[in-house]
């Protein structure tokens, strides 16, 4: 939450001092990240050894490639993750130029992440009752309902947008937590789980890179930060496109459920 609040506050202050303040923020952030990584390496539970392992990485990749359930997980995961990263890339532009509320960017982002943190325990409990796939579907549906009206917002609509941030943040908990749980169902005992989770992480990095392409596309469509012209393209990219991506993810998720309903939920690796 601080990592979202501090840069937004810096950019809303004196622009002449912003480079130095951002440099200081980056150094402090990197230091805290290093300390957190060291604490993780020292305090994390030991990695359990499976009953048998595939020492050849080529064999592990072949096993993963023929896992039909895993292949079916990739499409909904990628589409849903892209629908989350795209508005995250454009949020500050939308807040500043469409809502004309740049000074509220920090509070908006803080409410978004706070709602995600508060909602995660509720999603965990719901997943225990209806299953992770159904829980993931509910989360995506909530996000679509929250974002559906964003295209209608304009200058000064801060309170409606705050409600959108809370709804989308609450849905984020399900979208972050359920895919790894579903993946655990699809890995047979003894298989190298790192190959599966590494591939899923790599796919997440790919959608982050693709979401960055929205900026040159918006420039090509005529949008320039700080100007009123082109905000329609910005609004559609920020709100409408992610909703379409989530609906496609919902459709592709139905194919996955048939592969996971009969599989036992394996114990998650800490």
Could you walk me through the main structural features you see in this protein, from its secondary elements to its overall organization?
With 270 residues, the protein is mainly α. Helices cover 76% and strands 0% of the residues. The protein contains ten helices and no strands. It has helices at 2-11, 18-43, 57-65, 68-98, 105-130, 132-147, 158-186, 193-212, 214-220, 231-260.
Could you list some keywords that capture this structure?
mainly alpha; disordered C terminus; 76% helix; single chain
Outline of this structure?
The protein is mainly alpha-helical.
Shape: globular
The run of helices and strands is HHHHHHHHHH
* Gyration radius over CA: 20 Å
First-to-last CA distance: 24 Å
Question: Could you report the average pLDDT, rounded to the nearest whole number?
Answer: 84
Low-confidence stretches: 261-270
- Helix/strand-derived class? mainly alpha
Beta-strand share of residues: under 5%
Largest beta sheet, briefly? none
- Give the number of DSSP strands: 0
What's the arrangement of secondary structure elements?
Layout: H1 2-11, H2 18-43, H3 57-65, H4 68-98, H5 105-130, H6 132-147, H7 158-186, H8 193-212, H9 214-220, H10 231-260
Helix pairs in contact: 1-2, 1-5, 4-7, 4-8, 4-10, 5-6, 5-7, 6-7, 6-10
């Amino acid at each position: 939450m601080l990592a979202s609040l501090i840069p937004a506050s810096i950019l809303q202050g004196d622009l002449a001092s912003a480079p130095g303040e951002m440099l200081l923020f980056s150094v402090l952030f990197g230091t805290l990240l290093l300390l957190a990584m060291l604490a993780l390496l020292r305090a994390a539970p030991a990695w359990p050894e499976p009953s048998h392992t595939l020492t050849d990485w080529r064999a592990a990749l072949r096993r993963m490639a023929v896992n039909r359930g895993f292949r079916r997980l990739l499409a909904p995961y990628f589409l849903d993750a892209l629908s989350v990263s795209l508005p995250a890339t454009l949020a500050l532009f939308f807040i500043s130029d469409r809502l004309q509320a740049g000074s509220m960017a920090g509070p908006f982002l803080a409410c978004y992440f706070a709602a995600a943190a508060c909602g995660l325990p509720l999603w965990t409990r719901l997943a225990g009752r209806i299953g992770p796939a159904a829980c993931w579907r509910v989360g995506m549906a909530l996000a679509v309902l929250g974002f559906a009206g964003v295209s209608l917002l304009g200058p000064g609509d801060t309170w409606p947008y705050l409600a959108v941030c809370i709804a989308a943040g609450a849905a984020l908990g399900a979208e972050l937590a359920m895919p790894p749980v579903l993946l655990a169902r699809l890995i047979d005992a003894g298989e190298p789980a790192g190959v599966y989770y590494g591939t899923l992480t790599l796919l997440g990095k790919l959608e982050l890179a693709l979401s960055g392409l929205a900026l040159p596309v918006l420039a090509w469509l005529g949008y320039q930060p700080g100007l009123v012209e082109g905000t329609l393209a910005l609004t559609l990219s920020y709100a409408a496109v992610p909703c379409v991506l989530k609906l496609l993810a919902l459709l592709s998720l139905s194919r996955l459920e048939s592969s996971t309903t009969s599989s036992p939920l394996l114990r998650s690796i800490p």
